[in-house]
Amino acid sequence: MTTLVKPAQRPANPNFSSGPCAKRPGWSLAALSDAALGRSHRAKVGKTKLKQAIDLTREILQVPADYRIGIVPASDTGAVEMALWSLLGERGVDMVAWESFGAGWVTDVVKQLKLADARTIEAGYGELPDLSKIDFDRDVVFTWNGTTSGVRVPSGDFIPGDRKGLTICDATSAAFAQRLDFAKLDVVTFSWQKVLGGEGAHGMLILSPRAVERLLTYKPAWPLPKIFRLTSGGKLIEGIFSGETINTPSMLCVEDYLDALNWAKSVGSLDGLVARADRNFAAINAFVERTPWLANLAKDPATRSNTSVCLTIVDPEITALDADAQASFAKNLVAALEKEAVAYDIGAYRDAPSGLRIWAGATVETADLEALMLWLDWAFEAQKAELKKAA
């Protein structure tokens, strides 16, 4: 039975933001002591560290040997935009969206690139679209894990192996926590600040041989800015995929990413990372299942994310309020937790239904989530008490 007595147990780390995400356990600034500060990223030391970041990424994510991996500007957004502007237009494209970031890619393709043959296949928050409607003779753009809805594709089984189009996958809140089926993916993007808790501003672009072939045989009808260009003189700029970045990277951020990758190896690489995220989700889900005022936004258990866990408040007294009042209740609950320094940045994304969004990726400790669940009950009861006072 919940009361207004504050729980005795507190999360050791209250950082549950969905990006930038919590640093790996035990992280400190000392982890960056070997950073190549003040050195050129084109010097041997810089190139070596950038190449090491690419090689460790390949090893831990189990990226096929014939796929290229590049470090690109502007986080996951830059990596996705680079793929959209460089690859699309050769054939029609199906844009698949079920949350804010997927919807953003639809806007870019329809309103910015203005592709004439672009179909949109959408679903509301909490659900996947009907994936059987996708035509894989066309190019397909989708997110593996909907960061703002907590809905992911269960696997890559919906993608045929003999597809004619390219599959372009924004995997930023999935990579290092979920198993990506690279055989079904031609472009994969993510950023350092998600599952491994790295620093922002750098993106990763992974290309299949089919994607490289498209780059070499197709020239878009529109001009490409320098930071989007992957080819020169009809040839792939191979240096991008060996540590020669398009623009200047932060060597401090590179060092932080290397630290995160080495930590990932220490906990069992991909198997260990997935297991950690799965345990974290299980701790949240067990609480939700026994808590009458809370529910998963993702309706189908098979599609629930193990990283960006999105929850909605279903208490009848709260759902009876108008939408603005419901949103205010959720924001006040989040603010109360932040004031107590037990949870930072767990409000729902601005475009999503009101509620909570709790990051459960591999750098979060399960014990911290278990402690947070106790505080969720306290904050809910405290806000209901305030609501009754105001009435």
UniProtKB/TrEMBL annotation:
GO biological process: glycine biosynthetic process, by transamination of glyoxylate; L-serine biosynthetic process
Reactions that this protein is recorded to catalyse: O-phospho-L-serine + 2-oxoglutarate = 3-phosphooxypyruvate + L-glutamate
Family matches, as InterPro entries: Pser_aminoTfrase, Pser_aminoTfrase_methanosarc, PyrdxlP-dep_Trfase, PyrdxlP-dep_Trfase_major, PyrdxlP-dep_Trfase_small
Recorded metabolic or biological pathway in which this protein acts: Amino-acid biosynthesis; L-serine biosynthesis; L-serine from 3-phospho-D-glycerate: step 2/3
GO molecular function, one term: alanine-glyoxylate transaminase activity
Name of the protein this chain belongs to: phosphoserine transaminase
EC number: 2.6.1.52
Cofactors, names only: pyridoxal 5'-phosphate
Keywords, ordered alphabetically: Amino-acid biosynthesis, Aminotransferase, Cytoplasm, Pyridoxal phosphate, Serine biosynthesis, Transferase
Domain of life: Bacteria
Transmembrane segments: none
Similarity field: Belongs to the class-V pyridoxal-phosphate-dependent aminotransferase family. SerC subfamily.
SUPFAM superfamilies reported for this sequence: PLP-dependent transferases
CDD domains found in the cross-reference section: AAT_I
Segments for region (Disordered): 1-20
Record flagged with keyword Translocase: no
UniProt KW Oxidoreductase keyword: no
